[in-house]
Amino acid sequence: MKKLIVLLLIGFLGWKGYGKYQAYTLAANGAVVAEASESRQDGTLWKGPSTTASRFTCDGRTHCSQMTSCEEATFFLKNCPGVKMDGNNDGVPCEQQWCH
Fold first, then answer.
1. Which tens digit of pLDDT belongs to each residue from 51-61?
2. CA distance readout (Å), 69 to 1, 26, 42, 60, 65
3. What sign does the CA torsion over 50, 55, 57, 61 have?
């Protein structure tokens, strides 16, 4: 009987401890994701998409090889977080492929 009570107590403590651990790791990961999604390659903060209507939407593409025009690459650079299209940080994306 003592073994059963001890086993149940250990199981309960493990269950509660795992719940606290899981909440802690989710909170820590959420902070990292939020920080990564708000910062841009040039060090400025991303303020969200512009309010003007556009033919393009932020759909997760980040590289010049995924673009189809200079206009599209410029939209992504100005409006989408985490893009990797302006290697020299001069504000002109995809200079070798689209925006000569």
1. 555 688 999 99
2. 74, 39, 22, 16, 10
3. negative
Q: What is the pLDDT of residues 28-64, one digit of tens each?
A: 555 444 454 555 555 566 556 555 556 889 999 999 9
Question: How far is residue 11's CA from residue 45's CA, in Å, rounded to a whole number?
Answer: 45
User: Which residues, listed in sequence order, are joined to residue 39 by a DSSP beta bridge?
Assistant: 45
pTM for the structure as a whole: 0.48
The partner residues of 45 in beta bridges, in order of sequence, read 39
| Residues shown for the chain | 100
Would you say 61 and 76 are in contact if contact means Cβ atoms under 8 Å apart?
Answer: yes
